[in-house]
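Student: I would love a firmer grasp of how sequence relates to backbone shape in proteins. Thank you; the sequence and its tokens follow:
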Amino acid sequence: ELGWAMSVIGRTGICIEVNQGDRTLNEARQALHYFREQNYWDYYLRLCKNITHVYNRLGKYQDIIHLFEKTRAKTGELPELWARHMGILANNAGLAYLHLSLYHDARNHFELALGNFIKSGKHIGIFIVKGNIADIERNLGNYREALRLYHEIIAADCYTDSTYDYRVKLNLIECYLMLN
């Protein structure tokens, strides 16, 4: 069963692209149960990260928030393990709040993720979260603060995803247009 459950972790990473989201999420629930019962918490958290990504792509924002809180409660007494995975989980929860226009909650989760990425030295995570915080500022009409953050991201030149690069530059242009 361990091999099957571990394969679900990988399948959740690609299930949207191959149009298998719902089927894979059903298997993921079974795999989460297995990992929890067997105390395979590292695998549990890896799968949770992938599930929150799938939920985000499917627009299931409340499910992301629920899974984040449930996961934090279950693994909170494993601080070293939680610290390894918390940045991505908190960022995904922040994205859910951002999509729901709950900016205060989004910022709290992004700042939690940012602190985790800074502490662990994950530079790409730092700039992804800063981009998300800049998106909050842009949505709130704080264009100068959003511009400061977007320029900081561009100056760092540490991202490898051209889609992310495009999104940051498009948002930068939008901020300049809103200021003029």
User: Anything to note?
Assistant: The mean pLDDT is 90. The two ends are 60 Å apart (CA to CA). DSSP finds nine helices and no strands in the chain.
